[in-house]
Specification:
transmembrane helix, TspO/MBR-related_sf, Ferritin, membrane
């Protein structure tokens, strides 16, 4: 894997994580993962403990950065395919960062459930694209759409439990 590919890919993924993390903090909106607003939401029994999220997301982000950089390296001599992968990655990162803002910063439970679904579809598409290029070497990326699908179910259930 080339550093000239890994560094910008990792920076883009890290920026997405930072943007999402900012939305997750309780701000002037009174929302965030540790806020009274979030604590007051009814949640399904399968809601993971809060300690799970800061473990899972960095692993998924690292995997996304490394797998995407390696995929882009392999697509170096296929500019059109490389451009399409970069576009799919950009869309995915925007959707990823947007979910936290919709859910935590704005408290838009229904909209964030839809955004989570779009992120799960985008993540599955990104994994499909990486697997088409790298085969089994892209297999670890499958954890990302699996987690996003779980997040979609969880977000949708939280929305359903808290509709007023």
């Amino acid at each position: 894997m080339q550093l000239r590919t890994l560094v910008p890919t990792a920076l883009a993924v890290a920026a997405t994580a930072a943007v999402g993390g900012l939305a997750n903090r309780s701000t002037g909106t009174g929302r965030g993962a540790r806020s009274p607003w979030f604590a007051s939401l009814r949640k399904p029994p399968y809601q993971p403990p809060a300690a799970v999220f800061p473990i899972v997301w960095p692993v998924l982000y690292a995997d996304l950065a490394v797998t995407s950089a390696a995929t882009l390296d392999e697509l170096e001599n296929r500019p059109e395919q490389r451009r399409r992968y970069l576009a799919a990655l950009a869309v995915n990162l925007v959707l990823n960062g947007s979910w936290s803002w919709l859910f935590f910063n704005r408290g838009k439970l229904a909209t964030s459930a839809v955004a989570a679904g779009a992120l799960a579809i985008s993540s599955a598409d990104l994994t499909r694209r990486a697997a088409a290029v790298r085969g089994a070497k892209a297999a670890p990326l499958a954890a990302y759409p699996a987690w996003c699908a779980f997040a979609t179910v969880l977000s949708t259930h939280i929305w359903a439990l808290n509709r007023r």
